[in-house]
Amino acid sequence: MNPVAPAGGRTPAGPHVIAVVSAGLSEPSSTRLLAGRLGEATVHSLGERGVVAEVRTVELRALAQELTTMLLTGVASANLRAALDAVARADGLVAVSPIFSGSYNGLFKTFFDVLDDGALAGMPTLLGATAGTVRHSLAIEHALRPLFAYLGAFTVPTGVFAATDDFGHSSGVRADDAVAPLADRVAAGAAELAALVAVRERTAPVDPFALTESFENLLRGT
Amino acid sequence: MQFGVFSVGDVTPDPTTGRAPTEHERIQAMVAIALKAEEVGLDVFATGEHHNPPFVPSSPTTLLGYIAARTERIILSTATTLITTNDPVKIAEDYAMLQHLAGGRVDLMMGRGNTGPVYPWFGEDIRNGIALAVEKYALLHRLWREDVVDWEGKFRTPLQSFTSTPRPLDGVPPFVWHGSIRSPQIAEQAAYYGDGFFHNNIFWPIEHTKQMIGLYRERFEHHGHGRADQAIVGLGGQVFMRAGSQDAVREFRPYFDVAPVYGHGPSLEEFTEMTPLTVGSPQQVIDRYAAMRDHVGDYQRQMFLMDHAGLPLQTVLEQIEILGTEVVPVLRKEMAVGRPADVPDAPTHASLVAAAGGAKDVTVYALDGVTGRAAEVGVG
Fold first, then answer.
1. What's the CATH class of domain A16-220?
2. How far is CA B374 from CA A42, B310, B361, in A?
3. Is the Cβ pair A211, B188 closer than 8 Å?
4. What is the pTM of this model?
5. Residue B266 touches partner A, C-beta closer than 8 Å
């Protein structure tokens, strides 16, 4: 199965693309579920702003072996290359990992390790995470956010964390919720991401084979 | 079209026996491989240059000089010569010397080297890799073409009135290839000088190779050296063959599975699909490599990695025998079909001398300290 949903070839003038990366491991996966909801909510919010957008989902589970191969050989399989390009060329990114041992899982880190340098510079990004209990709820702030700061991504202030319990709380059901229900947090994060995506200047993806300097300049050592 | 073998010169244990060759054995094996390559009619033997274990070839011209003395015909080359960490003055001297000793059967391939610590061992910094390659090659290029060089740059002591000796054989510098896997600046460098470009694609999918070669060809034409399809292109390759393809797979798999670089990673089948590695019958190798020009256009040099991952010397020699007697003769014929007459072969010493209007002695004689005049030429 191709882990990258078909996109039909986005042209610069085509719909905006929100890449949704999920590092969930089980099937079905609550991480994948949260990632999907964040992506859809972002497309919806963009729609309200009059921006046509679509989601491209990258499920890392299906790429796990190919990611290891790339770590060892430097070469991306065709599927993995398509996934890396989908993320690099997207207008916005939703990145969601399950929390393992207090941080994102190894699969999630591997994907962002092999992503081309600079691919996420300035990329509007919404972070999400899932875990069994709410005790991990700050993992987005202490683990995911520093990683994306290093990568130069433009992360929105809201990170959406979902513990198992959250999937049983819908908006307005429990008046005693100290925090907003998951659906509200999904909507808040997606609205922030949509706001950034809507105003971001769309640029063509960097061509790794492009010559950026004349050879005469290189010779002069300028 | 030239066909040859290139050796990394790694000392790797044979995974089927656990035994690693000594450095001495490995060095002698490289010589035996070069002699075998000539014996079976291959055109080129190239050695890597490395300055750290597990590799032995730290001194390429010593090795190639010795091989030159024991061969008649084969071209001696490098894969690669570290333009970043070597002094271009020493490269100019060493390879001109080798040219004289080998009767011109010398070319070389420039590479940057990707082992970080090697740079500081030679006083350099890997972050300057491209700049080092550009500046040092610019100097090397002049040292072989100008008798007296005044030069100043960022990365070495300035030169005033410097003459690199010996001067190139017959007044013709060795042909130079530039090897790079993913740096467009190096493809541009090769194109700028009208030199050859070698893409060592042994770990890379053909789509990537195609893009790098495409860039080089386009820039070769841009810089006025000829049409894009006349640029001088070389590719790497890797094969293991037995008459029965399943026998080849069975015998090579234990070496593949734990090989340096790609071992413990993709399966043999996956890697074969992703890269030019072909494990099977000679006919399968012929089919795979005859199709390379469909991707990169008619090209000039195909090199094969035959001797790594701890394969025993005897096996490597058998492989080179199969390559030279069963595969290359067929590939030569197939590659010639439909090849335009004005797509050149890779330059050789003879073709470069002919292009320069014939051989000329370019010995630079020292000035006499008393008279200030050069010694008489050809005294006696």
1. alpha beta
2. 82, 55, 15
3. yes
4. 0.88
5. yes
